[in-house]
Structures are given as C-alpha cells and as structure tokens.
Amino acid sequence: MSVSVTWHGHATLSLDVNGSKIVVDPFFSGNPATTTKADEVAADFILITHGHGDHVGDAVSIAKRTGALVIANFEICNWFNAQGHAKTHAQHIGGSFQHPFGRVKLTQAFHGSGLPDGSYGGMPAGFLLTVDGKNVYIAGDTALFSDMQLYGRAGLELAIIPIGDNYTMGPDDALTAVTFLKPKVVIPIHYNTWPPISQDVDAWIGRVKAETESRPVKLGVGETYRV
Ligand code: NI
Ligand code: MN
Fold it and tell me: Which whole-number Å values give the CA distances from 76 to 49, 118, 120, 185, 202, in the listed order?
C-alpha cells in the first residue's frame, strides 16, 4: 500500500492513495493557515466530513474544475448536485463502499453539519479508509466518544484527529481518543487556525509519547507523512 497524507492547515488534507488523488475537506480560500491555492489542487476524489464552511470550503470549485467524485453523506451530495456538480457518491453513517482506491466507511461524529447557505447538511461524519487491508481513520470534527474503541479494534495504521478544543475535542479528550483508537501513528489537526482553537501542539505531542503507545507525528503546513 502506498498512502501519503499532506496537511494544508486546519482540517484540509490531500491524500495520495496508490496514485489516486483524494482531497479531504478542501478549505483554502480564507484559510489563514494554508499556503496552497484552491486552483492548484489536484483531485480525483473529494471527501467531505460535514457541511461547515471550513470543511466544504472550495470543494464546489475544485469539484467542477477537476471533475472529481464527491463522497459524502446523502444530504451534502444532494447539495453538490444543486450547485451543478452531479458527480457524487452518497453514503451514510455506518455504511461502507469499495471505491477504486479503497473502501470508505462513514463513521459517526458528534458535531453539526449545516451548509454555508443554511441548507441541511445531514449528520456529520468521519471516514475509515481501508486500503490493501490497512486502516486509516479521519475523525472529522467531533467530540470524544467511547465507540472510538470499536474503530481501534480494527487496527489503525494512522488516525487523524482534531485537538483544537472549542468546536471539537480539545487536547485532553484527544489524548483519551488516542487511547481508544490505539493507532500506530496519530496526526493532530483542526488547531491554531484561529485564536479559539489555539493549542500548544508540542505539549500534546509530548503527552502522546509519554502516556500512550501511539507515535504522534506533527505535520507542518504543506508537509507530508507517508504511511
Ligand atoms: Ni465543523
Ligand atoms: Mn471545523
């Protein structure tokens, strides 16, 4: 399996999965943390965790430019259709589907999902990707929940989780999440974009090293981790 993950700041990720280009929650325009422009992003697939503007972001323009398949919950896919992008694949919480690059399961997330124009965005989600038998979990915006232990049972090569607090899990709950998920590697996201989610990521990395069996990886903006 060949999976690489590039962090663009906030919750925006580019994945290269065995050559397929996947963008998760593409928020570039107006994202104070990113150094990438929306019109330079390559995408075969776009995964959207929920409807908030800092996750839907530039997804419509990138989808239309690239012709990427949008994978999200039913309500968000309908919204893309209404924006003039017909190429969508709707799933919902607990459901998985074998896409060309790997299996995608929508996992629960405790959060909101209203779309920027006020449309209903359905339930927020995370993603469990299975590629060549290896699992990568992207939590999405969420509170801590004990069923993360179930995702951990599957055996995770990598977990990507929010630590910013205020809108999502903060550092303490994210540390508990690591003990539930037991990933080989954990990457923190959704922090330091704006003052309410400002965190001492180095302190959190230190606690993961000291208090869990997982290896924390701190990505700088634009940096890539290869699974
Ligand atoms: Ni959100
Ligand atoms: Mn968010």
Answer: 9, 12, 8, 30, 35
Q: Which residues contact 147 (CB under 8 A, 6 or more apart)?
A: 108
Q: What is the pLDDT of residues 31-86, one digit of tens each?
A: 999 999 999 999 999 999 999 999 999 999 999 999 999 999 999 999 999 999 99
Cα(33) to ligand 1 centroid in Å equals 16
Number of C-beta neighbours around residue 114 at 10 A: 15
Nearest-5° angle of CA 55, CA 58, CA 62? 125
CA 124 – ligand 2 centroid, Å: 11
* Ion ligand 1, residues whose Cβ is below 5 A away: 52, 141
Compute, in angstroms, the gap from residue 193 CA to the centroid of ligand 2.
10
Average pLDDT score over the chain: 97
The owner of tokens 């990598």 is 158
Domain that holds residue 77: 3-220
Residue 225 lies inside a defined structural domain of this protein: no
User: Average pLDDT of 15-34?
Assistant: 96
CA of 116 to the centre of ligand 1 (A): 11
Q: Domain containing 32 — which CATH number?
A: 3.60.15.10
1 CA → ligand 1 middle, Å: 30
